[in-house]
Specification:
alpha/beta, eight-stranded parallel barrel, two-stranded parallel sheet
Length: 316
């Protein structure tokens, strides 16, 4: 399907953990694992319009109340932090979780005050994340690691214990614009889309494949994930009405046309049809973000959506 990227040959589904307190996490995370999701995901901001737990702390808690699911950030705003303590925290989390961490990273920028609060110039977020990814991989795998870069300089230094995963946690690159696709092709173990139609997803994956070749990467094992807002309802139109109203409130602009392209809408059988378009485009994992009635969705996933995944056809 692609010249340089090797995609998984099965379909996986994860879900964003809809919890911002201890009681909800204790109730929902084990239920999500029991329902058959392959992964649990959390978002990340230091400061934002809505309350959000610190993502790596939250995943450490989740790791202690689950056994099987992978634990992912979608996405961790790496430029806001110095990569050396991030390397230490993620090494510890990977070790304690039994090697289950997947680190999705991105630049953010939609809430500039958090960059100011962290003392990081907004315009430096792209170069900082590129360099930080390099630093993480050195510290995860090398003894006496050294780095001399524009933003970070140190060494020799070793961080022990190392992550349980031999090369460190997979790093998935999230975002919507051109630098994302260059970064995914150059540095990434995978890609996470956001607010992306199936057609755009296909274009993004082709560009990531092209960039991988440009940087001399071939036969790259690559995780392709689609982060999708999900609105179950008795009909497609009823779900569309709910999605448009909620997302318009969140983003403060008309969202009906965008909801048609960017969301899963309707009944479980509608979801499977819509998911097939993303599978055709190259997606192999779906990350469901369910803004309303998440517990009902977990039940629906277990009883109806998961069995329907067998109908999804991966292109030969």
């Amino acid at each position: 399907m692609f010249e340089n990227l090797k995609l998984p040959q099965d379909i996986q589904c994860g879900m964003v953990l809809p919890a911002q307190n201890r009681a909800d996490m204790l109730r929902l995370a084990p239920r999500m694992e029991a329902a058959g999701f392959d992964s649990i995901w959390v978002g990340d901001h230091v400061s934002f319009y809505i309350p959000l737990l610190e993502s790596l702390t939250a995943l450490t808690f989740v790791s202690a109340i689950t056994e099987r699911v992978r634990l992912g950030t979608s996405v961790y705003l790496l430029p806001l932090r110095h990569p050396t303590p991030v390397a230490k925290i993620t090494s510890t989390l990977d070790l304690l979780s039994g090697g289950r961490l997947t680190l999705g990273v991105g630049v953010g920028g939609e809430f500039p005050p958090e960059y100011e609060a962290c003392g990081v110039p907004l315009e430096e977020r792209g170069p900082r994340i590129d360099e930080a990814i390099e630093v993480l991989r050195k510290l995860w795998t090398e003894n006496g690691a050294e780095h001399r870069g524009k933003h970070f300089s140190f060494g020799p230094v070793s961080l022990d214990p190392k992550p349980l995963q031999k090369a460190g946690p997979p790093i998935l690159i999230g975002g919507r614009k051109g630098p994302t696709f260059r970064r995914a092709g150059q540095h990434g173990d995978g890609y996470i889309s956001h607010m992306c139609s199936a057609q755009q997803y296909a274009e993004n994956m082709r560009e990531i494949d092209r960039q991988a070749g440009r940087f001399g990467r071939s036969a790259v094992d690559f995780e392709s994930s689609a982060f999708i807002f999900t609105f179950p309802d008795k009909s497609y139109e009823a779900a569309l009405d709910r999605a448009a109203a909620m997302l318009e409130m969140i983003y403060n602009r008309p969202f009906r046309d965008a909801a048609r392209k960017y969301c899963l809408l309707g009944r479980p059988e509608d979801f499977i049809e819509q998911m097939q378009a993303f599978v055709d485009a190259g997606a192999r994992r779906f990350i469901f973000s369910v803004p309303e009635e998440p517990e009902a969705f977990i039940d629906t996933y277990e009883s109806l959506i998961k069995p329907g995944l067998a109908r999804l056809q991966i292109p030969g």
